[in-house]
Amino acid sequence: THFGFETVSETEKASKVYKVFENVAQKYDVMNDAMSLGIHRLWKDALLHVMHPQPGARLLDVAGGTGKASIPAEHADKSRQNPDNIWLRLPPPPLGDIAFRFLEYVRSQQERQQRRAVLLGQTPSWQDVSDRYPDGGGAPESAVVVCDINKEMLKVGRQRADSRGVTTGLSWVVGDAEELPFNDDQFDLYTIAFGIRNVTHIDQALKEALRVLKPGGRFLCLEFSKVTNPVLERLYDVYSFQVIPVLGEVIAGDWKSYQYLVESIRKFPDQEEFKGLMEDSGFFCVQYFNLTGGVVALHSGFKL
Ligand code: SAM
């Protein structure tokens, strides 16, 4: 198998990937912004927009890394001062990774429905669950499980979440995408953002995703892909091979890890190939959307 452009054994790849993310954990979030010029936030916004999660949904974010708990502290504090006042509550902050974006998105959906219901004198649809949950327990809260193979990445995420008081609905689990530590049919949604190219057996990770999703559940994957425009492709090549490793050295003191990240992107299957892999693994209605001219692709598929 490949570790960047080096040919290594499968066990070597897994331990080298582990080492890369152990090295970059502390600087990962800063580097992410620097390397993508902040555009990764727009790609993640696009994922949430396509996902459009509803209150009560359970999400598994695999290879979730640090979870990027970059919700500004002052926002969290102000929101806590008005926990019940749905009119004064601040709008969702513009920062945060998949897990945090998901929780904010669901919360804003709930609040919108609540405001609408107050104006119309009705019960919000997400509260009116007696038909779906007849035991009287009510709808389960939305929840996210962030799962990553790397303890260091999770540690950074958990510390930041704790320091900003973001704990409700969020849990952190060390686990391998190829052998997830969850029972079958557990989640409504599965996301993997910039993680699947690091996995040694992509087909095995896809099979595991299918196993833990509930029937009807949705898989969404963000990953670097094949640039479709030749001019953009040329610029992207120069940026990837000549700028990113330099940024890695200057900001994180780690040229090699960032060189690996760039090279691993080139080895990953393109849009159509990855779509085929998803279909072969058993996903239905597989489609993809190119973002930023194919620099990144968002793949989506459902479990029947
Ligand atoms: N999802 C985050 C984001 O979008 O910023 C982090 C992506 S980071 C580039 C890739 C992550 O994949 C790392 O945290 C790494 O530890 C994790 N990873 C690599 N191999 C994995 C595996 N087999 N199972 C689970 N996570 C894995």
From TrEMBL:
Membrane protein topology class: Peripheral membrane protein
Free-text function comment from the UniProt entry: Methyltransferase required for the conversion of 2-polyprenyl-6-methoxy-1,4-benzoquinol (DDMQH2) to 2-polyprenyl-3-methyl-6-methoxy-1,4-benzoquinol (DMQH2).
Catalysed reactions listed for this entry: a 2-methoxy-6-(all-trans-polyprenyl)benzene-1,4-diol + S-adenosyl-L-methionine = a 5-methoxy-2-methyl-3-(all-trans-polyprenyl)benzene-1,4-diol + S-adenosyl-L-homocysteine + H(+)
UniProt record similarity statement: Belongs to the class I-like SAM-binding methyltransferase superfamily. MenG/UbiE family.
Example GO molecular function: 2-methoxy-6-polyprenyl-1,4-benzoquinol methyltransferase activity
Organism: Oryzias melastigma
EC identifiers of the protein: 2.1.1.201
GO term, biological process aspect, one: methylation
SUPFAM superfamilies named in the record: S-adenosyl-L-methionine-dependent methyltransferases
Primary residence: mitochondrion
Protein name: 2-methoxy-6-polyprenyl-1,4-benzoquinol methylase, mitochondrial
GO CC terms of this entry: extrinsic component of mitochondrial inner membrane
Family matches, as PROSITE patterns: SAM_MT_UBIE (PS51608), UBIE_1 (PS01183), UBIE_2 (PS01184)
Signal peptide: none
Residues binding S-adenosyl-L-methionine, per UniProt: T66, D148, D176, A177
Pathway where it operates: Cofactor biosynthesis; ubiquinone biosynthesis
Location of this chain's protein in the cell: Mitochondrion inner membrane
Gene: COQ5
A Pfam cross-reference name: Ubie_methyltran
Keywords for the protein's UniProt record, in alphabetical order: Membrane, Methyltransferase, Mitochondrion, Mitochondrion inner membrane, S-adenosyl-L-methionine, Transferase, Ubiquinone biosynthesis
The protein's assembly and partners: Component of a multi-subunit COQ enzyme complex, composed of at least COQ3, COQ4, COQ5, COQ6, COQ7 and COQ9. Interacts with PYURF; the interaction is direct, stabilizes COQ5 protein and associates PYURF with COQ enzyme complex.
Organism superkingdom: Eukaryota
Transmembrane segments: none
